Amino acid sequence: MRAEDGSRRCSSEGTIAPMMASNIVDFELGAGTDRAVRRALANLERRQGEDGAWAGAYGGPMFLLPMYLALCHAAKRPPSETQRARIIAYFERAQNEDGSVGVHAEDTHGSLFCSVLAYVALRMLEVPKDDARVRRMLAFIHRHGSPLAAAQWAKVTLSLVGLYRWDGLTPLLPELWLLPYAATPFHPARLWCHCRQVYLPMSWLYGRRARIDDDELIRALRDELYDGAWSSIDWSAHRDTVAQVDAYRPPSRLLALANAAQRAVERITPDRVRAMALGKVREHIAYEDEVTNFIDIGPVNKVLNAFVAFFDDPKSEAFERAFATCESYLFDNELGTMMQGYNSSKLWDVAFATQAIVATPLGDEHRTMLERAYGYVRDNQILDDVPRRKRFYRDASRGGWPFSNRAHGWPITDCTAEGLKCALALEGRFAPRIPEPLLRDAVMLILDWQNDDGGWATYEKRRGGAWLEKLNPSQVFGDIMVDYSYVECTSACMQALRASLPRFGRRLAARARRAIAKGERFLRNAQRPDGSFEGSWGVCFTYGTWFGVTGLLAAGVPTSDRAIRSACDFLLAYQRSDGGWGEEGDSCRERRYIPSDTAGVVQTSWALSTLVRAQHPNRQAKARAAKLLVDRQESDGSWAREPLVGVFNKTCLIDYDNYRHYFPLWALSEFAREERAR
């Protein structure tokens, strides 16, 4: 673990060493930031696509490509030679010295889960078993207990291609979907939508004991992975076996009891009930495919739904569409070909880039760029609710915005909030404009999404109790069972509601004010004693504190408020001697601030923006941060690639590559505006 020496931490009063003060005075704040802002705007304009969006990598998770390649092997549709070489290159970059592959592309904690899947993937890509890369990987796998000790998702994937036995898995009963929702506190529809949409196809595949026919490679891989012991393995003895490297959330006692109960139920379940359950689950899977244009909510259920279509009928149109849309998740850049965590991050990036541009005084000079961005926001708002939504446990959608594009179809609270902020900020400047009823629908959707605790979750209102997390079967991820209220989502929704107050009349404004007040209480309760806010979708306390402070300010909290001041003091305590901030991704896993060896421009941007918005009086601290951003800028107006700063479910970092192109611009623009007002 790379951690900066604790002696570098200091209070906001003592952040700047006296010998550096003269350097700050000499720094040409106006000229430096102006040049940087102009170059950053030019860089964004060059990178913008014809559709108004900014394409960028959203990769990082190392279990996605192997699942897709398992599907390719099952369907006998291998990737092209070009793709094959680029995928191998991506795996090679992610492999650690000990031969392992982590949960994400920069993970130095070796993961048996991802190492097993990566090994199988490389062999399916025709990398020979005596290749040095796979030899080192296999050695790591054997040292940590073989696939018998891998996390659940690896065992499911291996079972589909005949490299594990379904008897070696804890039950994934499709019959749970037959239970009445209202009377069942553990009904699958109460789970976070990403979780339930993954376990939905898993339960169908488990219920069918789906498995491809053996072939020469599969037989060879059995010998390699299990060191020749395949035929003598007692699979049922390894249902709960998990290696320490995969045991971020080891099985709880409640999960063990639930699994035992499910095994007992499965033994007495009549075949006709199993058939009825499989039919109901298949109906839900088909619905998810239909309402998302076969894109599905994410890459894991995308691949698993495609497996379902394959085992249901490999010659069907459903499988053809399911397999073809897997391509929408593939992305190639200088690192190789990866599989992204979504079909794109375009709406999210457009929303932030637009706000960064608007924060500058130069928007009129880049009118075409703004017009295209507004067009993307306008054209990707969701126009209608999905049909029969209550039957399939879906919330309203009309007026919302997705993370990627309208075709994907799942609206998200913070994406809707950021989209609405852009729509309101640019309203009337470009035609055609977003119709008034759709803007109002966005506000209503945000209001209806608010949880009883005052916060906002991601896709839906919270449906289940926190106790459901004790039933988390994944072993490698945290907080996957329930759609909790989050600091980031809450802040974004509060900001959007604040922006809407003068727009939609007194009655709606009064309801929005009440929601904002409840959001303020949530944020105050979420703030830690040290003043920080924990981020759940970015690394980590730097990100969360940016959102936490901005949300409180949106609620009308004065900058003199203790919550604002303590949050700023927290950030200033971690400002580095070079003026920047750098936080390790392990902060998310360990839930404590872990300084990194070097500052990052994105995290520095979040911290600088927080201090500026909070009107913190330490001008020198802000100037030093701005100087770092200016000095790190490349000649073309961009900033260099840095370690991953996105995260989900505590353990898996993810790449928001476009962050480095607009967050420094945004922070410098805010800083420059504050300096001009002095």
UniProtKB/TrEMBL annotation:
GO CC list: lipid droplet
Coiled-coil regions listed: none
Top-level taxon: Bacteria
GO MF term list: intramolecular transferase activity
GO biological process: triterpenoid biosynthetic process
Organism (species): Labilithrix luteola
Squalene cyclase C-terminal domain segment(s): 345-672
Domain Squalene cyclase N-terminal: 38-329
Family to which the UniProt record says this protein belongs: Belongs to the terpene cyclase/mutase family.
Keyword Repeat among UniProt keywords: yes
UniProt pathway annotation: Secondary metabolite biosynthesis; hopanoid biosynthesis
Stated name of the protein: Squalene--hopene cyclase
Keyword Transport: no
Gene3D superfamilies: 1.50.10.20
Keyword line: Repeat
